[in-house]
Every structure is written in structure tokens, then in C-alpha cells.
User: Which sequence fits this backbone?
């Protein structure tokens, strides 16, 4: 038992000493972390200096049996304060940087850091429960005991160093893997993955899709809705960032310059994650940063990396593919600078997997195809109101699965929502059995469908009241719904 208690003391010594030294090596980071945990501004600096000294002192006192109990008690109290602070921040929905080991290792407060600190507290509690007189082998005892303790301590130090460097290597490998994924994102070969809900090869929402509605808090604590921007009738450039993203921080000075330069053309909005204080610290007191609880808006618009920018026109429609990375964002801003943003059907496509020509702005060709009732449907049928054109097949299981969603929407849609027109092929009686209250045009060989943008089934486009194609082709159910600003029914 004495050996076990000594090992616990040595482990806690390593933990507290490492935490203290790590914080001393990064005083600015320590002060920032203290502020994020709610310590008043005037106390943050002295607390940030005192905390690592206290941790190192506790660690040193744990080495000796005569002072171990006092050190373990102090360590337990300190850990309970940390745990309480973490629980409070998590309950508030915040994720400040725990800065647990300072410059050596840090992470946002979460379940992992909370469980780790609870584990350390349990070790301290075990020592406290043993009482002053029973703290295990004393390093000041016999030479043999001291030699054994030194060897044990040396092994623990070597293990800690090995784990530390192994983690650094793994983190580097993870960053490399992420960079490779980003490169793949911006250099796809145009192949389309066969999976339900698949979008185009660059995994973006189709151009022309309505930007999804949202309500987020900004760094001033104000609730901001998408409707607030829509009232201005101005284009918006959404830039998805993170306070922990190095390229985002490097790009921010340029973003500030763009805001001033382009203020008469486009509104630039930062969308981030994390705590208010972390974002204010990183983005220079910018109270216009919108904060997601997780990454809900970014996931909806498929801005999977930071930084990523998406341009939305004055009609509230997505008018650019995601510009992922600082270089791509600069290129997009250069295009915004050069273009007349009031121009109709303006969009900014990239070639990252978007090999199919975008038909936005093209009028439907002249045609005449009878519907299932023999009534002719022509280009003129589309004038007067927007229409959602669905490319469908009875042999496509995803189409058949989607048809009930389409029928429910078509029956319950509002008067402002688009008409529905379906292009398919096959047996007329099978299509009549669908009981769909919308024109179904049997396009043999999908000849017309291919001309106007069909990309497999199910896919779709939106046509405006002038018979012009106003969106990129949406492939898969979720992208088809995005064309008209709807989430896929669950």
C-alpha cells in the first residue's frame, strides 16, 4: 500500500508541476483563460500569476510524506474549484479554453477535460482519506527507498514525455489529414458519389438555393435573425470562422479592410463558434460576430471548414460555391470587387468538382409534351409563377421514397410557393397511380430533361415566372428541398 500511495503522490506531483510550468510558459494564455472563467478583469492578472506558483508548490509538497497530506488537501480544493468552474461554463453553453497544462496542452472545456479533472480529484481524495500519518514511502527515508523512488519518478517522467511527444505527433498527423481533405475538397475530379441526398461533387448547396433561416446571438448578446439582414435588401458575404483557427485569425485584418472598402456593395458577416470572450479576443472586439451553439448553420450550408465564405445575393439566394480557405476567399472577394452585384442571375461558380455547366439565367427551350391527361405542357406553362421542376424515375428507389414528401408539400404549400412539374419516363398508368396533383411529363429518354439540367434522379431545378432557370441542379432529396428553402421533412 505504501508503494501505491507513493505512486499516487508522484503522479499528482507530475500533474501539478506540469500544469504549473505550462501556465508559466504562456502567461498571456493563462490570463485569457482566467478571464474566460469569469474572474474580474482587475484580478485576472494576479490570479494568472499566482495559480501556477500554487500548482508547482502543491506538486513539490506531494513529494514528501510529511507535507503530502496538506498538499493533497490543497490540491483537492483547487481541483474542486476547477471542476465547479467547468460545470458552470458548460451549463451556460460556453466552451472556454481550459488551459489546463498551459503551453504544453490545452483544449476547450468539455466532457473530456471535466472527467480528467474529476479523476485527478479522486487521486487527491485518496491521499486525504489516508490521514497525515499514512502517506506512503518517504523520499527522505533509507537510501534504498530513495533510489527506488527516484527510479520510479524517472520512469514516470519518461512516460509523460513519451506520451506528450506522441500526442504532438498524432495532432500533427491529424492536421495533415485535415489539410489533405481540404485539398480533396477543392480538387475533386467531378465524379458523383451514389448516395441518398448527395449534392454536387464539391458538397455545396446548389447555386440559387434559398439561404436557410436562422436566429443566432452575436458577441454583444443580441439575438440576430436572417430576416434582419433580408430587410436591408443587400447582398451578404458569410465568412465561417473559429477563434481556434489560425488562418481565420490571419485573414481577419483583411476582412476588416474589405468591410470598409465594400460597405456600399456587400455586408460581411462572421459566423463562429465558441464563447463570446474567445471570439471578442480573437476578432478585435468585433461585436458583429454571430455565434453558433455548435456548427448548426455551417452544417446547413455545408461550410465544413474554417475559414469558408459563401456569397448570398440580395434576393437571399446562395450565389457562390463555398470558398474554402484564405486563398479561395480572397479570390471570391476579388470577384465581388470587380462585379456589379445588382446584375440579374449573377453567380460565382468554382471548378471544384462542378464540371456540369451551370444553366442559371437560361430560358427553357421551346417544347410541347402532353401530361398524363393529354393536356399539352409548353414553355409558356411556366410563365406567371415560379416552378419546381422534379426529374423523377419509377425505377429509382430514392425517387419513390421521396414521392410522399413531395405529395404532402404539394397539397399543403402556400400560394407564394412554386408550382410543381415532374419529368419522368415509363408506363403512364404507373405514374397515374402516384395520385400526384401536378403535371407529370413522360420525356422518353429524358431528352428534354437532359437539356434543362437533369443530373440523375431525383434531381431538380427552379424555374422563375419568366421561364428562366434560376438555380443549379439539386441532386438528391435534401438539395431539391434546398432549392425552395425547405428542410427535408423528417
Assistant:
Amino acid at each position: 500500500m505504501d508503494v501505491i500511495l507513493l505512486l499516487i503522490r508522484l503522479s499528482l506531483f507530475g500533474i501539478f508541476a506540469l500544469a504549473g510550468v505550462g501556465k508559466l510558459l504562456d502567461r498571456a494564455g493563462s490570463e485569457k483563460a482566467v478571464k474566460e472563467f469569469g474572474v474580474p478583469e482587475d484580478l485576472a492578472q494576479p490570479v494568472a500569476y499566482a495559480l501556477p506558483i500554487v500548482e508547482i508548490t502543491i506538486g513539490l509538497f506531494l513529494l514528501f510524506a510529511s507535507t503530502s497530506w496538506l498538499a493533497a488537501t490543497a490540491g483537492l480544493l483547487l481541483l474542486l474549484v476547477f471542476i465547479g468552474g467547468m460545470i458552470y461554463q458548460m451549463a451556460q453553453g460556453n466552451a472556454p479554453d481550459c488551459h489546463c497544462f498551459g503551453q504544453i496542452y490545452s483544449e476547450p472545456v468539455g466532457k473530456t477535460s471535466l472527467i480528467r479533472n474529476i479523476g485527478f480529484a479522486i487521486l487527491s481524495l485518496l491521499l486525504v482519506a489516508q490521514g497525515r500519518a499514512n502517506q506512503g514511502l518517504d523520499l527522505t527515508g533509507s537510501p534504498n527507498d530513495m533510489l527506488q523512488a527516484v527510479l520510479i519518478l524517472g520512469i514516470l517522467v519518461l512516460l509523460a514525455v513519451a506520451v506528450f511527444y506522441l500526442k504532438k505527433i498524432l495532432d500533427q498527423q491529424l492536421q495533415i489529414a485535415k489539410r489533405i481533405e481540404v485539398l480533396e475538397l477543392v480538387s475533386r475530379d467531378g465524379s458523383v458519389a451514389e448516395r441518398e441526398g448527395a449534392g454536387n461533387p464539391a458538397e455545396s448547396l446548389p447555386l440559387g438555393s434559398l439561404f436557410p433561416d436562422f436566429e443566432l446571438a452575436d458577441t454583444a448578446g443580441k439575438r440576430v435573425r436572417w430576416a434582419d439582414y433580408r430587410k436591408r435588401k443587400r447582398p451578404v458575404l458569410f465568412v465561417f470562422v473559429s477563434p481556434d483557427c489560425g488562418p481565420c485569425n490571419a485573414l481577419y485584418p483583411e476582412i476588416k479592410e474589405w468591410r470598409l472598402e465594400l460597405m456600399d456593395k456587400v455586408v460581411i458577416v462572421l459566423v463562429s463558434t465558441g464563447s463570446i470572450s474567445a471570439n471578442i479576443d480573437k476578432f478585435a472586439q468585433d461585436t458583429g460576430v454571430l455565434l453558433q451553439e455548435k456548427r448548426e448553420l455551417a452544417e446547413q450550408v455545408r461550410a465544413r471548414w474554417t475559414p469558408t465564405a459563401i456569397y448570398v445575393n440580395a434576393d437571399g439566394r446562395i450565389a457562390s460555391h463555398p470558398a474554402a480557405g484564405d486563398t479561395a476567399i480572397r479570390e471570391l472577394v476579388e470577384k465581388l470587387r470587380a462585379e456589379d452585384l445588382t446584375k440579374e442571375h449573377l453567380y460565382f461558380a468554382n471548378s471544384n468538382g462542378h464540371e456540369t455547366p451551370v444553366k442559371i439565367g437560361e430560358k427553357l427551350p421551346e417544347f410541347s409534351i402532353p401530361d398524363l391527361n393529354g393536356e399539352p405542357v409548353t414553355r409558356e406553362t411556366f410563365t406567371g409563377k415560379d416552378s419546381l421542376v422534379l426529374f423523377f424515375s419509377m425505377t429509382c428507389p430514392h425517387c419513390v421514397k421521396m414521392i410522399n414528401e413531395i405529395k404532402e408539400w404539394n397539397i399543403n404549400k402556400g400560394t407564394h410557393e412554386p408550382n410543381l412539374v415532374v419529368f419522368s419516363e415509363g408506363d403512364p398508368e404507373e405514374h397515374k397511380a402516384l395520385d400526384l396533383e401536378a403535371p407529370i411529363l413522360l420525356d422518353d429518354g429524358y431528352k428534354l430533361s437532359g437539356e434543362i439540367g437533369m443530373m440523375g434522379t431525383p434531381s431538380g431545378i427552379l424555374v422563375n415566372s419568366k421561364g428562366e432557370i434560376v438555380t443549379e441542379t439539386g441532386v438528391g432529396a435534401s438539395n431539391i428541398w434546398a432549392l425552395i428553402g425547405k428542410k427535408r421533412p423528417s
User: Anything to note?
Assistant: The CA atoms of residues 186 and 352 lie 5 Å apart. DSSP finds 15 helices and 14 strands in the chain.
